[in-house]
Amino acid sequence: GATSKLTLVSAPAGFGKTTLLAEWLGAADADVPLGAWLSLDHSDNHPPSFWTYVIAALQTVAPGVGARALSLLESPQPAMIESVLASVLNELNGMSTDVVLVLDDYHVIDAHDIHTGMVFLLDHLPPQLHLVIGSRADPPLPLARLRARGELVEVRAADLRFTTDEAAAHLNEVMDLHLEFRDVAALEGRTEGWIAALQLAGLSMQGRQDTAVFVAGFAGDDRYIVDYLVEEVLQRQTEGIRRFLLQTSILDRLSGPLCDAVTGQNGGKATLEALDRANLFVVPLDDRRRWYRYHHLFADVLRTHLMAEQPEVITDLHGRASDWYEQNGERSEAIRHALAAEDFPRAADLIEQAVPDLRRRRQEATMLKWLAALPNDLLSVRPVLSAFFGGALLSTGQLEGVEARLQAAERWLEPPRAHASAPAMVVVNEEEFRRLPGSIAVWRAGLALVSDDLPNTRKYAQRALDLVPEDDLLGRGGAAGLLGLAAWASGDLEVALRTYAAGMADVLRAGHISDAITGAITQADIRIAQGRLREAMRMYEHALQLAAAQGEPAPRGTADLYVGLSELEREHGDLLAATQHLSTSTALGERTGFPPNASRWSVAMAAIRDAQGDPDGALDLLAEAERLYVSDFSPNVRPVSALKARVWVAHGRASEALVWARERGLSAEDELSYVREFEHITLARMLLVQRSGAAEKALGLLGRLLEAAETGGRMGSTIEILVLQARAQQVRGDIPAALVALERALTLAELEGYVRVFVDEGPPMAELLEAAAKRRIAPDYTRQLLTALGQGERKTPVKK
After folding, report:
1. pLDDT at residue 603 above 90?
2. 418 pLDDT more than 70
């Protein structure tokens, strides 16, 4: 249908779904759009690889589409799938031709994250793209909603069943069996038009004289039909073909050379081509017919037979597959088959060699899956694997198991124990073993930092710097970076910046460009906290030059730089430039790369919406930011919940802000700390709009906050606190005191070009600035701010 987004072909195994779709796409009809085809199997349940294959399929009909999305999927920090898809959808939206994307055998997908991505895809489908899903079961997608809107076309088993006439045509004309109509009708009835069963029955009857006897004896439910028929088909093959089918059934994909390696025979390529011609349930995976797979149902039955007849050879077959994949440079498939062969020492060797590469590409999830499959007694004698197990758990946020894994590795770093009966240590990757003491200390520092334990963060990061060899720039850079972040979390910004910048310089020298780019964002954040907006701007521009020097596609983190630039332009009062930077960030790959960025993008856009007088839009974006928030190693110094409370306070919804303050356990008498400074300033804003008398309470809190911020060199907070002191004195009716605080704020803010910190206060600030202008306080600056307030969307008539 022209308005439909999704065509669903849903029926049990063997109903000819794939055949139907292939014929429809292959029809040489001008009305049929370009078709991108993807046959799925169980190994596609890993979201990054699933979406990589989807994009590769689209590229067969739309070359060049999704290049940026692919680089996001390969980036060390896994991107939000929504960001990846938005990037592809934007590119497809620009196409003039229509494209059909066929996902066949979708029932093998059971990863919740993939279904979520598919819902996003359907919700944002451009008119040029039509989705077709072939599946044995209805997928967990919003089918009812699509049906109600007329956006779903459904083809079901009832539509696919062979009628008696179709069955007769297939069996007699295509398969050249001369069956009586009565026999065809009996077969059709027994199989309920199930095409695969009819096909199997036809194959079983070829060359038989007594077809009528066969039809009479043909009965049973689906599974038995299949087992019985496949057995019949298998018995009709030569012994060589039968052995080939059984032995290669352990493979997800088949190619001539791989089959030769597994069977120990030659001629695999010719055999696969012959099976393809004979319709023996092989599915070609590429146009050149180099790779195939078996029909899933057929493979299941073959494996059952293999298990029943020759269980003792299965391990050996997986072992040969593993060897072949290793020799052909496919280490991950080599590891998968080694694990299936339960050859754990070999799997462990391969994983240990793969570790540095997996780490560079940040594929910790894959590493965890493999390591979890290894027996503990084997891991316990392999310090490199134990330590990386801990590191991978840390990087995926599973903090409980980290320390035990690091300790298991550390045991081997002590002098060897005396008694001879102890098992021997196994090390394959000498280089990683040499670096282990430093690596373990870095991971411990990271664990302490995410657990808000700053003393131990410092202790272990310092230990790492003492232990990491001079030539391990990544290790040294990581340790220094963690020390810098600990200093930042404790409010010591100058030390934080110096230490962190030194660490990032090492990371950059180690060739980790993306980490250096995201490091620049952290450094700019520290500069902004210090009130040094112009210096922060220079840092962003320098990082953009570094990114540009890498060429296309832009390295991970580039999109995040534009979000930072947007926040600075907004503070400088240029909402247009701020919005354009966010668009650039989106265009670069819809909030690419660095996971915390998706949340930060929404926060930046919320601030712009609020400045444009759309508080509801701002709150929607902040809710989205909260949902997307990903903790990283930086302190969360501007929690999204506090930003929401600020919008409520500014728009007369103080009761909601009050609930927030209670939930966060905030009071004006709290002991102050840098990590809660933003929340306490927000609390002061809340007190200002409460009943009379609360202004006194606010002034008391603001006085303490001002002292702490000035001591810590946090000029950004200092300016805002002075603005609020001026507002509190204004509420009390003491205008001279208000102007004293305002004058200090203006003096500090003018050099750095702050605008919104004043303008966002609205009409009350306009009154104070008018009074300041009369007294010739910073005359040029106050005039600039009054102009901005006059143009501000939050305006009401200013009282003279």
Report:
1. yes
2. no
